[in-house]
């Protein structure tokens, strides 16, 4: 008996070697690849697979996955999906649309106690605490504003608002600076008895107190009106006021404000359906005029000058899809085109996701390049009551000392 060893006959000698398992041989070949090749392969793998499985294979793979340079490169290649917070319940879902419109659904498994306020690069801004003011909506002492990465479970609690700050209206926003790659939370608040909003900022994992931003150069609309929409792209935070009227862009790195109008839309009216969304790290505007099923898409090409460019036009013919039976059993007969509101761009800006305004049910996704329309979610998903944001799994750390 050779005890699991295979004899190899040589002249006058008998040598033995261990019989290699085909799987082990294949694994050894993969592990022997140059680091550069492994790096370029890994950037295309979803962050949840890298973090939960592949970083445990060996020390080399662990070092690659936890490398800050790799984390940023993987984030660039990651596909944006949809995070859905079901009205503050424990079942927060993440939907990712891949090739051939295949949808992957994952439960985040993170205990969000309150609704998600904002997302940026896989980080989530939310509020913790059980008590909420009945009159007024300012954060009480037993509530805390936090930023977390649901994948790595890292969490940072932000400092409380400055003493004496009792806002009648307030908003928290999350954005990333372009050069320093620092994440900042912007606190916009209107205190009791004040005419103008104050703007304060804190760098996540770095600042211990809020810093005031000079907003005196903004117009009266930008200073004394609350924004309808708050969105962030790489380097900029956008606050949109009143459809076409005014958009405020905050350069997150320099903390400088820019103000400009929305896109110039021919034949526009007050009954147009106007939606602002982030598409491929650019601010986009989807407009459906008062009559018709045609949607026009604009993109902000330069935040500093406020220059817009028209991307394309597509037809989202809801009556055609209803007659084909695609929405059978989901939506009431009175659901028409006016009920469908754009919520997010996913799959690298190829798919726009709509929610139904009047009826609970799944989201409706439309691929603007192929024209395919399909549903996201099932009966358990209430798109009417849920809060949704564009989102991508990421390995982004909240602090340099917390990598992996």
Automatic annotation (TrEMBL):
Domain F-box: 27-74
Domain of life: Eukaryota
PROSITE patterns: FBOX (PS50181)
TM segment ranges: 29-47
InterPro entries attached to this UniProt entry: F-box-assoc_dom_typ3, F-box-assoc_interact_dom, F-box-like_dom_sf, F-box_dom, SCF_F-box_component
SMART domains: FBOX
Record has Membrane as a keyword: yes
Keywords: Membrane, Transmembrane, Transmembrane helix
Protein name stated in the entry: F-box domain-containing protein
Organism whose genome encodes this protein: Rhododendron simsii (Sims's rhododendron)
């Amino acid at each position: 008996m050779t005890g699991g060893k295979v004899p190899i006959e040589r002249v006058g000698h008998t040598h033995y070697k261990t019989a290699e398992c085909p799987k082990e041989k294949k694994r050894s070949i993969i592990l022997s690849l140059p680091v550069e090749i492994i790096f370029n392969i890994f950037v295309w793998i979803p962050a949840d697979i890298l973090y939960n499985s592949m970083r445990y294979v060996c020390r080399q793979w662990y070092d690659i996955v936890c490398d800050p340079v790799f984390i940023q490169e993987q984030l660039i290649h990651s596909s944006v999906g949809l995070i859905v917070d079901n009205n503050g319940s424990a079942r927060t879902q993440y939907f990712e649309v891949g090739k051939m419109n295949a949808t992957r659904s994952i439960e985040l498994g993170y205990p969000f106690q309150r609704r998600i306020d904002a997302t940026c690069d896989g980080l989530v801004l939310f509020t913790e605490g059980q008590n909420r003011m009945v009159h007024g909506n300012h954060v009480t002492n037993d509530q805390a504003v936090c930023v977390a990465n649901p994948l790595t479970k890292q969490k940072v609690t932000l400092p409380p608002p400055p003493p004496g700050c009792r806002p009648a209206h307030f908003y928290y926003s999350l954005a990333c600076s372009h050069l320093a790659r620092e994440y900042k939370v912007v606190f916009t608040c209107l205190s009791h008895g004040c005419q103008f909003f104050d703007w304060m900022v804190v760098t996540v994992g770095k600042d211990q107190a809020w810093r005031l931003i000079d907003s005196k150069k903004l117009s009266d609309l930008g200073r004394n009106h609350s924004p309808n929409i708050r969105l962030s792209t790489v380097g900029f935070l956008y606050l949109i006021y009143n459809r076409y009227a005014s958009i405020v862009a905050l350069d997150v790195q320099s903390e400088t404000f820019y103000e400009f109008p929305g896109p110039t839309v021919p034949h526009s009216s007050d009954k147009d359906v106007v939606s602002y969304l982030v598409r491929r790290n650019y601010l986009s505007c989807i407009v459906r005029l008062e009559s018709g099923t045609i949607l026009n898409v604009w993109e902000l090409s330069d935040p500093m000058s406020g220059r817009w460019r028209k991307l394309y036009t597509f037809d989202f013919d809801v009556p055609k899809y209803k007659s084909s039976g695609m929405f059978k059993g989901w939506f009431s007969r009175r659901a028409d085109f006016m009920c469908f509101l754009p919520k997010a761009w996913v799959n690298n800006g190829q798919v726009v996701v709509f929610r139904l305004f009047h009826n609970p049910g799944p989201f409706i996704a439309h691929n603007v390049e192929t024209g395919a329309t399909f549903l996201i979610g099932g009966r358990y998903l209430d798109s009417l009551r849920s809060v949704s944001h564009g989102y991508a799994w990421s390995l982004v750390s909240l602090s340099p000392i917390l990598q992996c």
